[in-house]
Amino acid sequence: MTDTTALPESAAPAEPATARLLAEAAGRIDAPDVVLAVSRNGARTVHTGGGAAPGPVPRERLAHELGSASKPYAGLLLARLVAQGRVRYEDRAADLLAPGFPVHPAVRRITLRHLLTHTSGLPGLPADFYPQAVPRWSTDPYGGYPADRVVRAFLRARPRHRPGTRWHYSNFAVSVLGHTLAAATGTPWEVLLHQQVLAPLRLDATRVRPGPEGTEAVGHRRDGTPVPALDTGGFTAAGAVRATPLDMLTFLEAHTAGAGLGGPESTGPGLTDPTLVAALAEVRRPVLRRGLRHTHTHTLTWFHHPSPYGPVLFHAGATLGQQAFLGFRPDSGLAVAATATRRVHRADTFVATAYGLLTETP
Asked: What is the DSSP string of 157-219?
């Protein structure tokens, strides 16, 4: 059961070619619910489908769990706080979290930039996370590991590598960043994200906690069994954002609006504030390379790849029963937001399909 529409927010009718492309792409994704949404300089086309019958609320207006695709929101928040002069990228996290507390010398050297760019030397998750998580790995691995435990694990950590020398993807590090920014500003993470990112960009359907009944997409295991809403415990900054595909497009359009081809920098939602404009520019800028012959490029928060149509910036995420993809091409004003309500598996085509819409579409 599918539907392809040009939404009221669009500046122009849906292009038939784009609608066909999305319908064909959705057919390659096996999930109860699928949403593929494309924006070209603000003109939106959204395709919804999947194996389940649609509910009373359109799929594109249900909040979906973004998982690790939450990290670009954390990155934009940090960039804006830096633009406002409230913190610096080179501030040391331990000094902000627990001034004077004795920590390992390598921990003392970890900066906010290290935490966000996965170069802190910290593991993907704390070592003591797994004993409590494994017994409930498929139902609630994070809920039993609260914020104070994340902070304690950081303060007693022994990084594997000297900060700034190696890239290692870390939910632990980005979660510590969230707690550090809350400590530095005296503002809870959820409030800080709303004040600095969600409200200015008018992301009214984006949040970090489940909303009222009937407003949330329901995730599923590989066998189609529904799973409960994700509780991220103390790892909020790394994976707690929930957003409708329409809000996801709005978030991406803000990144393309100030990139040069999406229109004047003041045309996007909330883009009249110079600190927000500066932050959006900062998170688009490549800052590091890694891998064999340094072939992998990253910005503060986005994976950065070349394509025949210019650079693409993207991030994917997965939870116990949902997947999400966010990506855009700053040089051409193209943005792609995608969601699916089935847990990722080895032969999954979701990320490859969404990535193809971003990199193979003229």
From this structure: ---SS-TTS-----HHHHHHHHHHHHHHHTS-HHHHHIIIIITTTT-TTEESS--STTSBPPP
Give residue 269's pLDDT.
Answer: 55
As a whole number of Å, the CA-based R_g of the chain is: 20
What's the pTM value of the predicted model, to 2 decimals? Answer: 0.94
**Predicted confidence band of residue 2 (pLDDT cuts 50, 70, 90):** low
What is the C-alpha separation between 120 and 117, in angstroms, rounded?
8
Q: From its phi and psi, is residue 339 left (phi > 0), alpha (psi between -120 and 50) or beta?
A: beta
Instruction: Say how far residue 300 (Cα) sits from the centre of its chain.
Output: 12
53-76: per-residue pLDDT in tens?
999 999 999 999 999 999 999 999
Query: pLDDT of 196-241, one tens digit each?
Result: 999 999 999 999 999 998 999 999 999 999 999 999 999 999 999 9
Rounded to whole angstroms, the Cα distance separating 307 from 98 reads 44
DSSP-derived pairing of the beta strands 334-340 and 34-40: antiparallel
Which residues have a Cβ under 8 Å from the Cβ of 7 and sit 6 or more positions away? 44, 45, 46, 60, 246
The more confidently predicted of residues 269 and 55 is 55
| Cα 128 from Cα 171, distance rounded (Å) | 14
Strand partners, 337: 37, 326
Residue 264 has pLDDT above 60, yes or no: no
Residue type at position 214: G
Non-local CB neighbours of 278 within 8 Å, separated by 6+ positions: 79, 80, 83
d(CA 261, CA 62): 30
- In angstroms, the CA 104 to CA 112 distance is 17
Contact 217, 322 (CB under 8 A): yes
Residue 171 in contact with residue 235, Cβ under 8 Å? Answer: yes
Are 287 and 298 spatial neighbours (Cβ–Cβ below 8 Å)? yes
Alpha-carbon distance of 282 to 80, in angstroms, equals 9
∠ CA(341), CA(345), CA(347), 5° rounding? 115
CA–CA gap between residue 338 and residue 354 (Å, rounded): 6
pLDDT of residue 4: 64
Euclidean distance between CA atoms 335 and 362, whole angstroms: 12
CA distance 81 to 92: 15
